[in-house]
Write a structure and sequence with these properties.
54% of the residues lie in helices and 5% in strands. The chain contains 28 helices and 9 strands. It has a 3-stranded antiparallel β-sheet. The protein has a two-stranded antiparallel ribbon with strand order 1-4. The longest helix is centred in the middle third of the chain and has 30 residues.
């Protein structure tokens, strides 16, 4: 039997456990190894100056860390960030928002009344779920009223409550709060008896006009035939501008949103604590506020980032086990951390990407796995170099041989991963594009550290092992000791006596047929494949011999299988459709979703709670995005007005009024839930004209005069004064 025919000598059958010796597994020739390990400036640098390389890398890392953390911050993942800004619907809405902003800028001449601007993100929802049955009873309603009155006694309430403007308002900053304007208890008389309460319930449900105004406060099963409710809800409005705790008085909400939001956020957290501490035998209370939700969501995400520590710990300990070293895995994990600020500096200062959110931070998990793979590749290649005596005899040759092989293998995987990430950098969804850009930078920086800092660390460790082995040799007076067990790779040679024993054993194995013969060498020398396999673990031996041999034999079958798999994948991928519902990343019973789920499942749609608002706007042509900063979600572009728009002709007034009237006649509840939900300033404008003895439509010459009179008349416009003006868009005497 020869080394090229690993079969059973008695039957001639192929032995699956024999070590193949074909060209696929044949050892490298000495000449080829010498050529690949030819010393260079790179190897000389790593061997002679490993500490200097490590010091330079650390210096760069520290400088980038200082530069990165001076600007690093998590941007708000507002819903606008994930919009496709080139979509015409988004552009139309942006034009509308810019028009409102221009109105605010041109018409804000001084301070707004304190807390007179209702801020939608400050709205607080309170949902009540029965414990014993119907909530529409005296005891439950009285308890709900007392509970809500407790909120009005919390600190900061008077500083953020909504002070509604009405026709009776006199002292602008002295108006009282109106916390119960949307409370479910406002439909019933305080202190009413049980009989009186039930009468009021009946009266409410039978008065269709009155009930439509408050229908969203009662569960969806509440009707004429069912005068009970298992669910009730209230909402509390809050307003800006405010006076903060330092006494600063803001002019209006858009004057400076962030500090006012932070002030309200503290109050929202106080209300959440108040709800948590409250208990009732009649009902449970669920709470929701957008600022509170965003705060808690951020805290939840940061808590999940604790798993980064667990991931690092797992990889660290496994690398310690694999390399039999502590310093190499620790340095490797530090490289992952050091690559982050370096990547951020490239991302922020070279590519000029200013957006960085939690999604980009998730790339740490991805890079952790890639970095571990790269380090395993380098360490295993370093181990393989120990199988060649010519490399063991020269540290510089061993270093450059390992470097060339490992760097090439790592470059291929790094380049493909980089291309995959950068492909997302062209996404029209900005946060996804930012994630791809940062992750691509992170991958490249990790690779640069693995091919610069990591080889220097391995060389430094090997020098330390050689130095320690030399000291042991000097103490024991032995001729040629082996490297210590905790070395990354044994580097000193065996003794002459051990070499003679190994040669004798090799000869015996070849003579009795237990090992294949490598005929390309001179004499009876055991093949490189057999030597490697004997030193391998059972798992490594299986993959190096049996598995690889069978894979090579069945390579066409494997190729065909994956080709079919690829075709099927393409077919099914082409059938993918967008999800019909929004992705939910938080369980329904979690406090962050419990209230929203309860409102969605148990209440009819109403104001501020899920009904989609559609704006019909005249006078806008769109937005110019030519100078938009792609990475700034708040940069909507420049507003473009439709200069051809003119509402003053009577025929234009009539057509717009007819359009409003037609909207109220739509019977499709998916489009218009109720005629009361259609708001058109022309309705109150026509009523105003009638009360003043004027006709509609207004003559073109008098149109702007009558419109300005209507807007400036608080008695007629009432609380709708500010809203009407913004909807009309009368800017500096010109109707835009």
């Amino acid at each position: 039997m020869t080394g090229n025919n690993p079969s059973d000598p008695n039957t001639g059958d192929q032995n699956p456990h024999a070590l193949p010796t074909d060209d696929f597994h044949r050892s490298e020739t000495v000449d080829h190894i010498i050529k690949e390990s030819e010393p260079s400036k790179v190897s000389e640098l790593f061997v002679r100056w490993p500490l200097a390389i490590i010091a330079v890398v650390l210096t760069v890392g520290i400088l980038c860390t200082v530069a990165a953390f001076s600007t690093l911050g998590l941007d708000d993942d507002g819903s606008r960030s994930f919009l496709v800004w080139s979509d015409y619907r988004v552009q139309r809405y942006d034009a509308y928002v810019l028009a409102l902003d221009e109105y605010d800028e041109k018409n804000k001449t001084g301070q707004e009344d304190l807390q007179s601007e209702e801020v939608s993100s400050w709205l607080i929802w309170l949902v009540y779920e029965e414990k014993k049955g119907n909530l529409l009873n005296k005891n439950s309603i009285d308890n709900i009223r007392a509970f809500e009155e407790g909120i009005t006694k919390l600190p900061r309430f008077n500083e953020v409550c909504y002070r509604e403007i009405d026709s009776t308002s006199t002292a602008a900053d002295g108006r009282s709060c109106h916390p119960y304007s949307n409370s479910v208890t406002s439909s019933f008389t305080p202190g009413a008896s049980e009989a009186q309460l039930q009468t009021e319930v009946t009266t409410l449900i039978e008065n269709d006009a009155a009930y439509r105004k408050v229908r969203s406060r009662f569960d969806k099963d509440f009707n004429v035939n069912n005068k009970t409710a298992d669910w009730l809800r209230s909402s509390m409005k809050f307003g800006a501008p405010i006076v903060d705790e330092k006494g600063k008085r803001y002019n209006y909400y858009l004057d400076d949103e962030k500090p006012q939001d932070e002030f309200m956020e503290e109050f929202a957290l106080d209300v959440a604590d108040y709800v948590d501490d409250f208990s009732s035998s009649n009902f449970d209370v669920y709470y929701w506020n957008r600022l509170w939700y965003q705060k808690k969501q951020s805290e939840l995400i940061l808590q999940d980032f604790a798993f980064i520590g667990l991931s690092i710990a797992f990889v660290l300990f496994y690398m310690m086990f694999h390399t039999r070293s502590a310093i190499i895995p620790i340095i490797g994990m530090l490289q992952v951390a050091l690559a982050f600020p370096i990547a951020y500096c490239i991302y922020r200062y070279i590519f000029q990407v200013t957006f960085f959110n939690m999604m980009s931070l998730l790339s740490v998990f991805v890079i952790l796995g890639i970095a571990a793979d790269d380090m395993f590749v380098y360490v295993d290649t370093w181990k393989q170099s120990a199988e060649h005596e010519i490399l063991l005899a020269n540290l510089e040759r061993r270093t450059i041989w390992t470097y060339r092989k490992a760097a090439h293998a790592m470059f291929v995987t790094t380049f493909t991963t980089f291309c995959a990430f950068m492909a997302t950098g062209v996404s029209s969804i900005m946060p996804i594009a930012a994630f791809g850009m940062f992750s691509g930078c992170y991958v490249v920086c990790n690779y640069l550290l693995v091919i610069t800092n990591f080889p220097a660390v391995v060389v430094l460790r090997e020098k330390f092992n050689i130095w320690r082995a030399s000291r042991k040799q000097a103490k024991s007076n032995s001729s040629r000791p082996r490297s210590p067990k905790n070395s990354v790779i044994p580097s000193p040679h065996d003794s002459d006596e051990e070499k003679d024993k190994e040669k004798s054993r090799q000869k015996e194995e070849i003579e009795d047929g237990s090992a294949p013969i490598n005929e390309s060498t001179t004499g009876l020398k055991r093949s490189h494949t057999a030597l490697r396999a004997k030193e391998m673990s059972k798992a490594d031996r299986f993959f190096y011999t049996t598995y690889s041999h069978k894979l090579r034999q069945g390579r066409f079958i494997v190729f065909g299988f994956f080709l079919v798999w690829l075709i099927l994948s393409i077919v099914f991928t082409a059938q993918l459709t967008p999800p019909e519902e929004d992705e939910e990343f938080i369980p329904e019973d979690h406090e962050l979703r419990r209230t929203l789920v309860a409102m969605e499942d148990n209440f009819p749609k109403g104001e501020n709670d899920g009904a989609q608002v559609t704006f019909v706007v005249w006078g806008l042509d769109g937005v110019d995005r030519s100078d938009v900063n792609r990475w700034d979600a708040e940069d909507r572009g420049d507003l473009e007005w439709d200069d051809s728009f003119d509402m003053s002709p009577p025929e234009s007034q009539q057509k717009m009024a007819d359009f409003c009237d037609q909207l109220k006649t739509i019977q499709d509840k998916d489009l218009v839930q109720s005629p009361d939900d259609v708001t058109c300033f022309l309705d109150t404008f026509r009523s105003y004209l009638t009360s003043k003895g004027h006709t509609f439509p207004v003559p073109q010459a008098d149109f702007l005069t009558r419109l300005q009179e209507y807007i400036n008349n608080p008695t007629e416009s009432g609380s709708d004064k500010e809203v009407s003006n913004r909807r009309i868009g009368l800017i500096q005497g010109r109707l835009r």
